[in-house]
Design brief:
Layout lengths: L9 H4 E2 L2 E2 L1 H18 L46 E4 L2 E5 L8 E5 L2 E6 L7 E6 L2 E6 L17 E4 L2 E4 L7 E3 L2 E6 L2 E5 L4 E6 L2 E6 L2 E4 L8 E4 L3 E4 L2 E8 L3 E6 L2 E7 L7 E4 L6 E5 L3 E3 L7 E5 L5 E5 L13 E6 L5 E5 L4 E2 L2 E2 L2 E3 L6 E8 L2 E6 L3
Parallel strand pairs: 16-18, 23-25, 24-26, 25-27, 26-28, 29-33
Antiparallel strand pairs: 1-2, 3-4, 5-6, 7-8, 9-10, 11-12, 12-13, 14-15, 17-22, 18-19, 19-20, 20-21, 27-32, 28-31, 29-30, 32-33
Length: 379
Amino acid sequence: MTSWYTRQASANIANGNTADADDIDLELDAVKTGIDNSMNSSTGHAHDGTADNGPQISLTASVTGTLGVTNGGTGAATFTDGGILLGSGTGAFTVTGQPTNGQLLIGSTGVDPVLATLTAGEGIDITNGTGTVTILGEDATTSNKGVASFVSADFSVSSGAVSLGDDVVKDISTDSGAVTPATHTFTIAGGTGIDTSGSGDTVTLAVDSTVIQTGDDPQFGGTVTVGQDIVHLADSDTKIRFTNDKIEFQAGGTTFLELTEDTADDATFNVPVYAFPKVIEDTGATNTLALTDANTVQRMNRGTAQAVTIPTNASVAFTVDETQIAFLQQGAGAVTITGDTGVTVNGTSAGSVTINAQYKSCLAIKVATDEWIIVGDAS
């Protein structure tokens, strides 16, 4: 054990039977200094069990109670298994619960941090595992943000900057029309019968001066405004030509009719609507007329009797003097046409007629709000 004071020589302490007071004072001072040093943490005994430092002090047998924070302890006797210690100033340490998969210690201003998992935002997926947190970006869609890849032929990406390729506008060809790309701009060229022009951010499409009708059996209705010629698709020499002051009807290149006018402009004229009536087959035992039956031929085709009801104007508002419905009995079953309650047929309220025989017909004409006349081979 290391000496914690230097003992004076005995000859200096006692000389015969007489003690030297100065030497005794020196000896006592040395003892005091040794004791003081033994109580000083920096110069005293370590009590670490090594030579000259004395035996180790057992915390179990020699120390009782809980060692406080100010004395280098934690201030607590037990902690949650797997918990995380949190300092509390000079107070005892606190401890969190054991974190579950994916939980992290997240700070909270002014208070102790808490255990929590990361929250995924739009386009982000988070998977919590044992000791792992995996963060992945979702694939982008039209309705969801996420990670998108770029087609190298259309885009270039450098240091996070995306640039549009010069030829991102693709070539489009249809019916002699085309769209031609040129450094993020494109030109629209008109197809058959179409002229195009542009100014600034405006593109104008116009029908060529020669209008070509491609239908096999064209029908026009209402007011039609044309340019110079209406040409038959299969025969360019057959046309209606509009000049400044006349209309020419040509066939095979020869004008066979010419109409003149005083105005010096393109002709605007009314063309009457004409169409053959639609034929509708009716095979049911009973049928009440609908608005879509106006100006049609009802082909009655059933082996047994058929009954047709004309509804009131309140139910189906057929146009007076513009509605005609023909009935043709194709099948063997007799066809009877009856006015609903309140509907007059041939002068009789709720009256009716029956087509006289198979392959015979009649025509129903609306002449007033709830009045019809039926003519033909029916009685």
